[in-house]
């Protein structure tokens, strides 16, 4: 897989272990009582998803979504925060989300939340441990960088050094980071997910990366029977359950 950011490889490891576990403890027993709710553009909210005020038998509490102002469907993934739901695909078990900090046609608007990589019953990885969406790294450099890997965020974004008010240059890099992708004097400041892919060296603008971010990113949804039953609502790892707050997440 090559060398990725330490944090990312750790997530991959955790997921690989988790997937191994859930295939062992699979018990296919779902109560798919038929209820269909709708909110905004999403007309087919059905089991295991439910809206906050739906009757209890409609879904599963782990898959609760809320409808705000009758137009926005929101999933709350603490501690990351809320996301707007753009689409639910029951066939391939994916949910497409957009960070609420991003505004259409405003490439200066930024994410409010760090992406939720693993948050039962959602995962940014598919069953084989691959990211479903492409990572987009926000990079800050002390000197201008002329690299085909880096997309200049100016004039949309300018991330200044926090302590010393020195001039900095900001870029995004689309796709996983390999060793050597981070130039000297540069640091990765933020990570986002988007459904886009193009080869290295592709000439693109930050505006087009921003529109891809507006389209959203996919998470894999694990159905109730794919999650270790005793751990529902919690992390599961090596047949043990953990509360959702894990140091370093
Ligand atoms: C599904 O849930 C409803 C309400 O809780 C219950 O009445 C029904 O018997 C359940 N069906 C199955 C197949 O478990
Ligand atoms: C809604 O989703 C259910 C599966 O949960 C599917 O059976 C049904 O055909 C879908 N309906 C529409 C209108 O997409
Ligand atoms: C929400 O929107 C639907 C369809 O536009 C409408 O039928 C319903 O009355 C609205 N509900 C509220 C609480 O505004
Ligand atoms: C899931 O299904 C949608 C629509 O059918 C498709 O566009 C998307 O590529 C699929 N995603 C995966 C990971 O297969
Ligand atoms: C665009 O987003 C930036 C950053 O959130 C904000 O300061 C600015 O007011 C927004 N512009 C418009 C026209 O909404
Ligand atoms: C996961 O994604 C990888 C890369 O896109 C793909 O090769 C693999 O078949 C996917 N696995 C599953 C179980 O969907
Ligand atoms: C950036 O690199 C390309 C190709 O290596 C070169 O053509 C271009 O002049 C460089 N631009 C700057 C501003 O140095
Ligand atoms: C960032 O630094 C530039 C150049 O020093 C300055 O003009 C700009 O106001 C700073 N922006 C913020 C948000 O501090
Ligand atoms: C990339 O595209 C921009 C705008 O279309 C153009 O000005 C620039 O010369 C292109 N750079 C390369 C290396 O093709």
UniProtKB/TrEMBL annotation:
Coiled-coil regions listed: none
Domain (Wall-associated receptor kinase galacturonan-binding): residue spans on this chain: 35-99
Topological type in the membrane: Single-pass membrane protein
Record's GO cellular component terms: membrane
Protein localization: Membrane
Signal peptide: 1-22
Highest rank taxon of the organism: Eukaryota
This protein's UniProt keywords: Signal
MF GO annotations: polysaccharide binding
One Pfam family, short name: GUB_WAK_bind
Protein name in UniProt: Wall-associated receptor kinase galacturonan-binding domain-containing protein
Lineage: Eukaryota, Viridiplantae, Streptophyta, Embryophyta, Tracheophyta
